[in-house]
Amino acid sequence: MLANAGTAKDWGPVATTPISQIREHLEVNTLGALIIFQATWTLLEAAKQPKFVMLSIGLGSLNDMDKYPMPGVAYGVPRVAVNFITEGIHQENLNLIAFPVALGMYIETRTFT
C-alpha cells in the first residue's frame, strides 16, 4: 500500500499562521493518512507480505529542519505527525513493513521579464 494525503495551502511563519490553517492541514495531512491506514488494515493484515509506505517530505523531519529554511508550520507539523504515526504502525505490527518515504523538496526561483 502506497499512501498519501496532502494539502499545502499556507506557508506562513509560526508567529502569524492562523490556527485554522494548522488545523486544516492536520485534518488532511495527518488524519487523512491515518484514515487510509485504518481503511486498509484488514487487507494489510490478510496479506502475505504486507507493506504500508507513507509518502512524506523532508520538511517533516525534525533532524532535517535546517535543510529547509522556510516558513511552513501549517504543512510541516502535520508531516512530522504523520511520520510519528507511520513509525507507530511499524512498531505495533511486527508482520507489517511500514515506513515513510520523504520526497525531496524542490524550490525553484525564476525571474520573469
Describe what this molecule looks like in 3D:
The chain is of the alpha/beta class. The protein has a single domain (about 1-105), classed as NAD(P)-binding Rossmann-like Domain (Rossmann fold). Helices cover about 40% and strands about 15% of the residues. The chain has helices at about 20-45, 75-90, and strands at about 1-5, 50-55, 95-105. It has a 3-stranded parallel β-sheet with strand order 1-2-3, covered by helices on one side. Helix 1 links the parallel strand 1 and strand 2 (about 50-55). Helix 1 runs parallel beside helix 2 (about 75-90). The chain is elongated, with a radius of gyration of 16 Å. Mean pLDDT is about 85; it is low at about 105-113.
In summary, what is this structure?
With 113 residues, this protein is of the alpha/beta class. It has two helices and three strands. Helix 1 (19-46) links the parallel strand 1 (2-3) and strand 2 (51-57).
Per DSSP E runs of 2 or more residues, the count of β-strands stands at: 3
- Main-sheet strand order equals 1-2-3
Query: What's the helix-strand series?
Result: EHEHE
Radius of gyration: 16 Å
Structural class: alpha/beta
What is the CATH homology-level superfamily?
NAD(P)-binding Rossmann-like Domain
Uncertain parts? 106-113
The major pleated sheet works out as: 3 strands, parallel
Architecture, CATH level 2? 3-Layer(aba) Sandwich
